[in-house]
Amino acid sequence: MPSAGARPEEPDAAVERLRAAARSRAAHPRKVRIRQLKGLKRMLEENEQRLLDALAKDLHKSPTEARLTEIGTVRAEIDHAVLHLTDWMDPRPAKVPLALQPASAHVRARPKGMVLVIGAWNYPVQLLLGPLVPALAAGNTVVVSPSEKAPATARALQELLPQYLDPALISVVSGGRDCVQALLAHPWDHILYTGGERVGRIVYEAAAKTLSPVTLELGGKSPTVVTPSRNATAMARRIAFGKFTNAGQTCVAPDYVLAVGEVAHRQLLEHLPTAIREFYGEDPSASADYGRLVSAEHTRRLVDMLEEDVRAGARVVVGGRADVAGRYLEPTVVDGVRPEGALMREELFGPVLPILRVDTFQEALDFIADRPHPLAAYLFTDSLRYHRAFEDQVQAGAVSTDVTLIHAGMVTLPFGGVGPSGIGAYHGQAGFDTFSHLRPALTKSDQVDTLKAVYPPHGWLKRKTIPRML
Ligand code: NAD
Questions:
Q1: Dist. CA 26–CA 141, nearest whole Å
Q2: Domain ranges for the chain
Q3: pLDDT tens column, 78-121
Q4: Which amino acids bring their CB within 6 angstroms of ligand 1?
C-alpha cells in the first residue's frame, strides 16, 4: 500500500487508498486509536516551535495566543479523548420494554469508515487537528484538507502529520479549492467542514449528491448584549478579549454590541478603549500580541465598510487606523452604527466592533430574533431575570453570560451552530459521537418463542391484547 509522503497526495488516490484501509478495519482497534492520538500529541510537543513560526508567518499570532488557542486546545482534546475512549467505545445499555423481554439491547459507537475534514485558515492548527482527534478516536481513516490561505501552517502540517500518524490511515490533501472539490466528488462516511457559508453551501450540495453526512461549522454575526454592570472594567475587558484575539478573526468573536440603555452605553464607551490600551498599548501595531488580517483584500473590505458607516454618521470611538498592504487594522470601536449600516450587513470577521443602542432588554432580544441564528450570543448583566430570559429565548449555537469565547475551548461542551450558523457539533464526546455510527443492537433468544403472542392469525384475544402490550 503506498503511503502518504511529504508531498501532497492526489485527491483521487488518497480516497482510493483510505477507502481500502477503512474496509480493512485497520483503524478500529482501541490500541491503534490510542497510538494515533499519542502520536499527534508527540507531534505537537516536538514541533511546537515550527508550528508557532508558521502561525506567526500566516497571521502574526503571538506564541502565547497560539499556545492557548491552537496547540493547547488540540492537546486538551487529545488528553480528554485518551482518558475517556474506553467509556465512549463501551456499549451503552438500552432498556427493553417489558412486553419484549427477555431480551438485551445496547447502542455501540462504531467507526463510520472514511471521513473528510476540511479546515479554515483563521485557526489553521485547531480547526484541522481539533476534528482530526475525534475522527481518529472514533476509529476512522481520515483525509484532512488544510486551508490554502494559511500556507505556512498547511505546509508544516502536510509534512508533519504523516511522520507521526500511521500514514496508511490518514492523508493530507492540500491544494485549496480544486482539491476540495475533487475530494467532494467522492462519497464519504462523514464530512466535517469549517468555514464560511458560501463554501458551506458548495460542500452541502456536493454531499447531497453522494448522500454523505455532514457537519458544517459555519459563522455568523454573534451578538453581545450589555446591560448596566457593577464591574464594567471586567465586562469591557472580556468583550475586548473575545473581539480582538486573532484580530477579530474568530468564528465566535462578538460581532457587534447591543447596549441596553444610557448607562450601559456610557460604560462601554468609557471602558472599551481602556481595555484595548491595557491589552495592546497606545500603538497596537507595535504589540507582539496583536494579530494581522489574513489578506490585504480582507483588510480593504473592513476599511471600506467602516468608512461607509462613518460617512453615514457613525463615530470611531477608538482605533480606525489601517495599513491595508500590511494587513493591519487597529482594534476599532464604532458607535452609532445603524442596524442597516454596512458593518451590520455580514459577519465582520475582523477587529471592528460596532455598538448599537437599544432602549430595552426586550428590544435586544427582538433584534437577535429578527436575524439569522448566530454561532454564539453573549450577555453581560447583573440581572438574574435577564440572564434567565436570555438563556430561554435566544436561539444561537451557544450562549454565554458575563464571558465571551472560552466556551469554544471546553472539551465538556459540544461546539456547533444552529440553522445558518451550522449543522452538527463536535469537541469532546460530541466529536466522538459525530464521527461514530451509534448503532443499536438487539438480542432476543428464540429458544422460547415469546413473540408467539403477536403472530397472526389475530383472533379476538390477540386483537384485544396486542395494542395493550405496546
Ligand atoms: P477558507 O477560505 O479557509 O475556506 C474554508 C475551506 O474551504 C478551505 O479549506 C478552502 O480550501 C475550502 N474552499 C474555499 N473555497 C472553496 C470552493 N469554492 N470549493 C470548495 N472548497 C473551497 O475559510 P473562510 O470561508 O474564509 O472562513 C471564514 C468563515 O469561517 C467565517 O464565516 C467564520 O465564522 C467561519 N468559521 C467557523 C468556525 C466554526 O468552528 N464554526 C471556525 C472558523 C471559522
A1: 9
A2: 11-218+419-438, 223-413
A3: 999 999 999 999 999 999 998 899 999 999 999 999 999 999 99
A4: 118-122, 127, 145, 147-149, 176-177, 180-181, 194-196, 199, 202, 217-219, 251, 347, 349, 375, 417, 422
Q: For 144, how many CA atoms within 13 A lie in the half-sphere containing its CB?
A: 32
Please confirm, yes or no, whether 217 is among the known catalytic residues: yes
Q: Which atom of ligand 1 is nearest to the CA of 397?
A: 41
State the pTM of this model. 0.95
Atom of ligand 1 nearest to the CA of 251: 34
Whole-number pLDDT of residue 2: 36
Q: 161 in helix, strand or coil?
A: helix
| C-alpha separations of 60 from 32, 123, 290, 294, 378 in Å | 36, 12, 7, 9, 27
Question: Is the CB of residue 173 less than 8 Å from the CB of residue 8?
Answer: yes
With contact defined as beta carbons under 8 Å apart, do 423 and 400 qualify? no
Q: What is the pLDDT of residue 469?
A: 77
User: With respect to CATH, is domain 11-218+419-438 assigned 3.40.605.10?
Assistant: yes
Test site for ligand 1: of 177, 216, 249, 427, most ligand atoms within 8 A of the Cβ: 177
Question: Closest by alpha carbon to 320, among 302, 332, 305?
Answer: 332
- The cell numbers describing 87, all together, are 467509556
Given the residues 70, 179, 251, 347, the one annotated as active site = 251
Nearest CA to ligand 1 atom 18: 177
- Quote the cell numbers at residue 363: 428590544
Rounded distance between C-alpha atoms, residue 347 and residue 252, angstroms: 11
Class (C level, CATH) for 223-413: alpha beta
Does 251 qualify as catalytic in the annotation? yes
Residues 6 or more apart in contact with residue 307 via CB below 8 angstroms: none
Give CA separation, 387 vs 233, 399, 401, 414, in Å. 19, 10, 7, 21
Q: Are 15 and 184 in contact (CB under 8 A)?
A: no
Closest alpha carbon to 189 in 114, 137, 131: 114
Spatial CA neighbour of 331 closest among 245, 417, 237: 245
DSSP code per residue over 251-281: TTS--EEEEEHHHHHHHHHHHHHHHHHHHH-
Q: How far is the CA of 280 from the centre of ligand 1 (A)?
A: 28
